[in-house]
Amino acid sequence: MTEISIVWGALLVATLAFFSLQCLLSLKMKVDAAYLFAFCIYFDLFAYFYKLAVPGESLILLIGAPLLPVGVALLLKPSIVLETLRDQGIWLWGIFLAYVLISLTWAPAESNGIMKEVVLLAHGVVPALYVYLVYRKYGRFSWTIVAWAGMAYAVLHLLLGEYNEEYPGRLTLPGGNPIFNARTSLITATVCLWASRIPLPVRLLSLGAALASALSTQSRGPLAAFLLANAVYFGVWFIRKFRERKLGKLSRLAMPLLFLLIIAGGTASAYAEQLAVWVESSRFMVLFDRNQLQGDDNYIGRVDLQTRALEKLEASPFLGAGLGSVTPPLARDFPHNLVLEIAAEGGFAGLTLWTFAVLFSLWAAIQRAPVLAILLVQSVGYALASGDFGYNYEYVVMAITALALYPVKQREGVGVKREALVFDHRF
């Protein structure tokens, strides 16, 4: 029965691939790069169902599934390869990744650093390049697609999530980690808050589901990064509107906002006691109580790990100790801070290369798609509180997507205005 199932599965995949190829080549259908972006960011949604049917590593799906539209894009427009090679931002990321790979030559022999880079490439860099190439061919990116995918992810997390002994009181997808569940849902929340041309019902439903999903994980670092990134952008946005004297045009939003505040206030008053009990018993209290923070075992453990990473940096400040030198199996655990990890393993040389790549991508995002700038800051904030070099992939996806959306002629210094490339398109 197993062999028959494999044969039927292979035939089904081949049929779907042939049909898709016909649509792309004969019917000249255009692919929206947001599908690939959502597939990467919400990959846990697809991996969950994939693992139910196919045993083994699910990252092969992330790498293999988009190959057909990417291959067609390259076939129909080979020049996008040259565009990619001329992109200064891509070069900056390539130099940084090459440097950390070279650092393996002076890392301890038992270092497992190569696996960290492979995970980052498979989970972040390669899928982001898929988005880059497809967008360069078709010029389509719809945030509505991202919002729909984010809603599906949040609903799946809320319906199928579980409370297990490893993460007591924290809703987690089976086999997952509540921190990464929260990080993913809060990306959806930011998209719904700031991205343009998302239908209001989709925006509100996705925002509500994403916030419920994120809060149910009781993950503090992702929430703090989300609040900080959005607060900074809101301040910048408010100042810009004030200078442009456009705040008067926003007055039409006063009544809807007042109505929502009244409803929220009434709801909070009705459930005040339950909310107070929930807040006081939740893990979020450490964000408001310094004494609780300093007594938190998780916080104390991470401070110790980060202190050890700083000691590695002091021992080899310029080149670092080599990729993988501050993470298992050489260390008990990783420092849960990407900047410290890169500095300890790549030295100030590696940290400088990383900083240039991030800042260049942030500049491109600010120029073309501010929501990506918020997401980049937010995902870097995630990386400062959890995860390691390999599994902190979201910021790389945001960075390379920002490079894709930045027009080639503007990147080359030619002041030519182009049609709006980021819009709402649905098949």
UniProtKB/TrEMBL annotation:
It is a multi-pass membrane protein. The keyword Ligase applies. The keyword Chloroplast does not apply. GO terms for cellular component: membrane. InterPro entries: O-antigen_ligase-rel_domated, WaaL-like. It holds the Pfam family Wzy_C. It is found in: Membrane. GO terms for molecular function: ligase activity. The chain crosses the membrane at residues 6-27, 34-53, 59-76, 88-106, 118-135, 142-160, 221-239, 251-272, 342-362, 369-385. This is O-antigen ligase family protein. It comes from Paenibacillus mellifer. The lineage of its organism: Bacteria, Bacillati, Bacillota, Bacilli, Bacillales.
